[in-house]
Amino acid sequence: MATLEDPFGKVRPKLVAARTEFLAELARFQAAELERRPSPEDWSALEVAYHLYVVDGLTLQELRRVQEEDNPALRALEKEGPRATRETAHDLSLDAVLAGMAARREEILQFLAELPAAAWERPCHHQTWGALKFYQLVNILAEHDRQHARQLVEIRQRLRRSDSGESHTAPASPLLSPS
Questions:
Q1: N or C: which end of the chain has fewer CB within 10 A?
Q2: CATH (domain of 75)
Q3: Euclidean distance between CA atoms 46 and 25, whole angstroms
Q4: What beta strand segments (E) does 19-142 contain?
């Protein structure tokens, strides 16, 4: 079995770029827009940011499990993340959410930096995605950030269309829905 060469060196720039993309989109919101939802069933931009914080914590738990257990069955974070976000998203502040996001991502990066190259090949299994290697699970984090950066673009557009009086009859994007 071939071992990846410098897996952390390869994934770190992806994780940083994806998080930077998300934060750049979040910064485009006016303060008054951060807590507004495009519709009652959608999340606000602040709730989306909080969701990334929550999912980073859940993902770190799963990353540790992959290193500690033999071929573990991963939790369905695509369901668990939104559920945990909805249940705990109360009295959010931008400063607290951003600080939490930064600390949690730093914790993930520190964990990953300490792993030997062979650890990145450890197997795990996901109910939907099937057999995965550890490095593939890590790469999902970057894609998750990019997905929610796109969601922020859509939220901002919908809020501004609503403010300008434009009607928006198209159904909400699946990206906007918290489930």
A1: N
A2: 1.20.120.450
A3: 12
A4: 123-126, 130-133
Q: What is the pTM of this model?
A: 0.89
DSSP letters, 85-109, are: HHHH--S--HHHHHHHHHHHHHHHH
In a domain, 44, yes or no: yes
H or E, element range at 7: helix 7-27
Contact 49, 101 (CB under 8 A): yes
Domain count, the chain: 1
Taking only the tens place, the pLDDT of each residue in 100-142 is: 999 999 999 999 999 999 999 999 999 999 999 999 999 999 9
How far is it, in rounded angstroms, from Cα 47 to Cα 119? 33
How far apart CA 88 and CA 25 sit, in angstroms, is: 23
